[in-house]
Fold this sequence. Notes:
5% strand, single chain
Amino acid sequence: xxxxxxxxxxLAEHARQTELELKAPGQVVFDDRLAALQECLVKISxxxxxxxxxxxxxxxxxxxxxxEQLAEERGTNxxxxxxxxxxxxxxxxxxxxxxMKKRQMFR
Length: 107
């Protein structure tokens, strides 16, 4: 679980950094995985999308407390929140894989 969580956190951090990286004036660079992730985020419900983004875009150094507060806001406990996030992460990882394969077929 920790490895998947770290991977998802690195992916979210990469998404934040890549989003602002400029290749040429006015041209934003998105790598294939980030573009695929963005496409997949649009496919899930707005509530799930907000949850995932809030879960991973937390203040640095306060992860546990922030996630406890997030669970409380949703009327659940931290364990149930983690299960929900794991299921969403699995869904997004599967979707990203499918999108990437489709893009490779058309190159």
